[in-house]
Write the structure tokens for this entry.
Amino acid sequence: MDHFNYHGGELHAEDVPLARIAAEVGTPVYVYSAATLTRHFGLFRQALDWTDHLVCFAVKSNSNLAVLKLLGDLGAGMDVVSGGEYLRAKAAGVPGDKIVFSGVGKTLAEMRLAIEGGIRQFNIESEPEMRALSELAASMGAAVPVAIRVNPDVDAKTHEKIATGKSENKFGIPIAKARQVYAEAASLPGLRVVGVDVHIGSQLTDLEPYRAAYDKVAELTRALRADGHVISRLDLGGGLGIPYRRDNNAPPLPIEYGQVIRETVGDLGCEIEIEPGRNITGNAGVLLASVIWLKEGEGRDFLIVDAAMNDLLRPAIYGAHHDIVPVIEAAPGAAVQPFDVVGPVCESGDTFQKGAELPLLAAGDLVAFRSAGAYGAVMASEYNSRPLVPEVLVSGDQFAVIRARPTFEEMLARDSIPAWL
Ligand SMILES: *Cc1c(COP(=O)(O)O)cnc(C)c1O
């Protein structure tokens, strides 16, 4: 459920007509709903209310400071994958002891930043990283809490570019090798082993891969305890999918996911961490765009909009689908026709949808790309020297620009021409 609905024939974000935001901020623009973010976060908390837990929001899905502040104020921890994300979480007021640092390529500078600023746990992805982190922490007089990310070799049954839990993926250490790596971790002076970490992929629409992975984590936890390790936390990753189409089967709900966690690892007495991203932010955002031209092609008509692949990359890189809807609701029974919805960027990949069934629209009309709150603005670029897409947060009947569109002057000022040129 989200808070983007038609009222009086006009698409709203909560109580604000999207047309008003377009008029004041311009298009393209991302619009997020605070009520939807709050609701989705609450569903994960509720799903784990049977145990000690921390819901660590995956910052990479939407890293706007206002979004992080909203979730942090609700009690969310944060899962970060870079020094920049760590600094964003801190700047949003999230304390270091609620921040988990994941990612396969943490640099020494990033590790130092997090040790100095405070960190709940590092999720270690490889042995070289583990040794380097220990050495650095020890040199700083610290012993940092760590979980080791294991790769359970489970097929997440999702898009290959967002599957992370198969042995061919770059993530984690093979679960078969885990006991040996934990033994070394326990011997290193700069580390304090606290848990086990796993994350098998994104946009999972089936709970069985989770069940398979978490069963393996439970078995490993018992073995590690038998080896003498204190395993008090399990970080079970993120990845629960969202419905991208109104009409298709909805993925499992957070409450059902929480039940699988309870059934697989619930008896171990561990504090449970999860790292949902997309499920919290995805359907809490739309990308609002204007029609520039309607272009009649041969055998197909193009709707050229002012949003492009640089603003919303998912269709171009994953073939992802976003429902596209008119902001002014079509009259009941109004004729629809197929359009290829495309952006202005000079790439054929700049196609959002082929044959989208839409009412007849004209230049200047507004459309919304739904389910765009996750992996949308964070992947945006200025390709074709298009200004970085702005972001707006709505709450009830108020809205605020939470990232302004840069001016062309600001964009040009970032470059410099060397004196010798
Ligand atoms: C991307 C990622 C997540 C979040 O995935 P979602 O599909 O957005 O829930 C969580 N943990 C790690 C380690 C990730 O890389």
The chain has a mean pLDDT of 96. The longest helix spans residues 208-226. DSSP finds twelve helices and 21 strands in the chain. Residues 58, 60-61, 79, 102, 199, 202, 237-239, 275-279, 374 surround pyridoxal-5'-phosphate (CB under 6 Å).
